[in-house]
Amino acid sequence: MGLYPQAAFLLMGDRGLLLELGDEISFEVNEKVRRITLAIRSEAIDGIVEIIPTYRSLLILYNPLILSLGALKERIRRLEEGLQQARFPDPKLTKIPVAYGGFFGPDLEEVAKYHQISTEEVIQLHCSKPYFIYMIGFMPGFPYMGELPEALATPRLKTPRLSVPAGSVGIAQRQTGIYSMESPGGWQILGRTPVRLFDPEKERPALLQMGDLVQFFRISEKEFEEWQM
What we know:
13 strands, seven-stranded mixed beta barrel, Gyrase A, domain 2
């Protein structure tokens, strides 16, 4: 079905409302998620505590003592009707350096073997295009991006690692992402970036934002070390 004609409302406890906007991961569905997120934030509706957008849905946490469920649904329906008239910002492109393979990319060779290509071809494919940030999630600042070239689509690890270093750049199916902090994880790790993706002391803690673009480019291990100085 793809994009729903109207958002479907699902209750999440006594102070959460989930808006499902489609039944598949697609640019069209995600665009509506972003549009309605921007519209809600611009309205600054009293009683809404937090908005959490994802690939195809949006979770609204609200205070029922200030904003009733009925009033919230009514406001959302009105906003949904005028989404196409809302200003939509152009995506920002961020270029991210990556040291591929070796110590930084323990799965690069296995990914190459899986596709029966060279490690150089894997790197070239991964750097061949800008990726769209569908959502930020899993951990603060972690970008879910797509889509990888079909020739690079790779399953997750059968056994997740207990610890993946911050800055690790991985792939899973047709997604690519960057671990913003050390964490367990099951993505295939191709390399690592010296760029810090999340800094809680900054006004905008996350470097990357939903709806923007990322272009990877290759650096050497020496450049990686110099970048961190």
